[in-house]
Design goal:
The structure holds 2 protein chains of 2 kinds. Chain A is an alpha/beta fold. In chain A, about 35% of the residues lie in helices and about 20% in strands. Chain A has a 6-stranded mixed sheet with strand order 6-7-8-3-9-10, sandwiched between helices. Chain A starts with a strand and ends in a 5-residue tail after the last helix. In chain A, about 50% of the residues are buried. Chain B contains 9 helices and 2 strands; from the N terminus they run H-H-H-H-E-E-H-H-H-H-H. A two-stranded antiparallel sheet of chain B has the order 1-2. In chain B, strand 1 and strand 2 form a beta hairpin. In chain B, helix 2 packs antiparallel against helix 5 and helix 3 packs parallel to helix 5. The longest helix of chain B has about 30 residues. Chain B is flat, with a radius of gyration of 24 Å. The chains are: A alpha/beta, B mainly alpha. Chains A and B meet through helix 3, helix 4, helix 5 and helix 6 of A and helix 7 and helix 8 of B.
């Protein structure tokens, strides 16, 4: 079942002469975990925002083409309507806290209150989101007292509680330490396994290679490739798009070791181990 | 978590009362002494506020506010006691300064009124969580946007202050003089403005987006996670206070 369709999407920010997104077309199926990679200014964040209606509703600017999110055409529906289908988590966990709620539990409820969800249903959804993100023990804490990783998991929980079928994450681990990043990736992987479609813009290539089903490679607002991690990271021209492949891929490329029976280099530690045929410490 | 709210968490029947009843009390405390401008009525109202503060176990927290107010009120006593037009009866002579009874009585009335009103506001502020107050008002038709602005200030301002001190520390670590005479301090303030103002603008934009995707501008009725705080006493108290105001008004008209 197709959850996202982008059809010839073009977008230009107000006051800019250059297209931030140019001729973007792709489809994403239900339950897929998609990584968006590319150099800075490649259009990753803009694409994330285009999938949740912030482009064009929040940013305005020149918009062409169509984006369908779970059947809704983004341009024709308000951000609030789209938020029921697709939620978005941003880079900075701090600015995602509303600042109007005193506890983690109330913070998660914020979106549900706005959407007019009944109290009993609201409590069920909050409990479910807290359990998924493993933050039930933080229920009574003030959101601003949490660590970066905890705060980001709270931000994700706040979106999950709204029960979207699609969750978009725009570099959610860029301000987190390795431990916090791993917490977030594991949480998102869990969501994906539960059938939520995940789109994540990310710079940590080892993680992208490990967790994503397919990767969308962007450069200057255009799609260069959309394929499996093995295919994407085995491209010879990645450097010119400002992407550094996972360290395992680089090592195996230097050694000329490919995955058995394919033309692809290993992209994860496990694949590299298997390909090298010995234990890598 | 630093907060700029004055709320003091205690266990008292005043804390258990709903915010709207406390708003009624403020209205009562302002209107009754205005409608019936005798010193005895104002005195009763002031005592009532102070007794309620004591019962709410927050009088100690109210004292600094009262002290601050009294410092201002001393000027009223001095000026009215010395110079109020209509001063005739000498009450006290301190050297060349002559205090008159009429002026002092007027100053007493003003002092009592201010004590009464400040006390009533303190009852609300010290015994009500700001979020409970705003939520009660939103339930009664206040725009959720205005409610959000009011309530978020309590947490976002302290966060901005801590960001500002981080920036200051970073600048100090790179050799910027931030301590010393006034000129040095003013000079240190200028490089702080850019990052703080721009940072706040960026944060505000990001927060606005985060709010949007959580349905902040959704059409239709909002619901609330918490049930509205009400007490069996709420309605009788509100009606009683209203009745007293009306009775005071009628009394004033008839006499």
């Amino acid at each position: 079942m197709t959850k996202i369709i982008a059809d010839n999407l073009k977008y230009k920010y107000p006051l800019s002469d250059k297209l931030a997104l140019d001729n973007i077309s792709f489809k994403v199926e239900k339950g897929e975990f998609i990584g968006i990679i590319g150099a800075n200014k490649a259009g990753k964040s803009t694409l994330c925002q285009a999938l949740t209606g912030l482009v064009p509703h929040f940013y305005k600017g020149a918009y062409g083409g169509k984006v369908f999110v779970d059947g809704l055409e983004v341009k024709e529906h308000s951000i609030a309507e789209i938020s029921l289908k697709a939620g978005i988590v941003f880079q900075n966990p701090f600015t995602q806290m509303t600042g109007s709620k005193m506890t983690v539990y109330e913070e998660i409820a914020f979106g549900l209150e706005n959407l007019g969800i009944a109290r009993e249903e609201m409590q069920k959804q909050i409990d479910h989101a807290m359990e998924l993100m493993d933050i039930a023990s933080l229920k009574e804490r003030n959101p601003f007292d949490l660590s970066g990783g905890q705060m980001q998991r709270l931000a994700i929980a706040s979106i999950i509680a709204m029960n979207p079928e699609i969750i978009v994450l725009d570099e959610p681990t860029s301000q987190l330490d390795p431990e916090g990043s791993e917490e977030v990736f594991l949480a998102v992987q869990l969501l994906s396994r539960q059938g939520v479609t995940v789109i994540m813009a990310e710079h940590k290539m080892e993680k992208v290679a490990k967790y994503c089903d397919r990767i969308l490679l962007l450069y200057n607002g255009e799609i260069i490739d959309f394929d499996t991690p093995g295919k994407i990271f085995s491209r010879d021209d990645l450097k010119q798009y400002g992407v550094v492949p996972p360290i395992f891929t680089s090592v195996c490329r230097e050694l000329g070791v490919k995955k058995s029976g394919t033309d692809e280099y290993p992209v994860t530690l496990e694949e590299a181990r298997a390909a090298l045929g010995r234990k890598v410490k | 978590m630093k907060q700029i709210s004055l709320y003091a968490d205690r266990n008292s029947f005043v804390h258990d009362l709903d915010p709207i009843s406390k708003l009624y009390y403020i209205l009562f405390s302002i209107l009754v002494p205005v409608i019936l401008p005798s010193i005895s009525v104002t005195l009763i109202c002031s005592f009532l506020s102070i007794i309620l503060l004591l019962l709410a176990k927050v009088f100690k927290k109210a004292l600094p506010v009262f002290l601050l107010v009294f410092i201002v009120l001393i000027t009223v006593v001095i000026i009215q006691g010395l110079f109020r037009p209509g001063n005739e009866t000498i009450f006290l002579k301190i050297g060349p300064a002559v205090f008159y009874k009429e002026g002092l009585l007027y100053a007493l009335k003003v002092t009592l009124r201010v004590t009464d009103i400040v006390g009533a506001f303190l009852i609300l502020v010290l015994t009500t969580k700001p979020s409970d107050l705003v939520e009660s008002l939103v339930r009664r038709g206040l725009s959720p946007r205005i409610g959000y602005v009011v309530i978020s200030v309590f947490q976002i301002i302290p966060e901005m202050t801590s960001t500002m001190s981080t920036i200051m520390d970073a600048q100090r670590a790179r050799g910027l003089e931030t301590e010393g005479n006034l000129i040095t301090r003013i000079k240190a303030f200028i490089p702080l403005l850019g990052p703080v103002v721009l940072g706040s603008l960026v944060n505000t934009k990001e927060r606005a987006m985060a709010l949007e995707v959580r349905g902040f501008n959704a059409q239709g009725n909002k619901t609330f996670l918490n049930e509205e705080k009400t007490s069996v006493l709420s309605k009788p108290i509100q009606l009683g206070l209203l009745l007293i105001v009306v009775m005071a008004f009628v009394w004033r008209l008839l006499t």
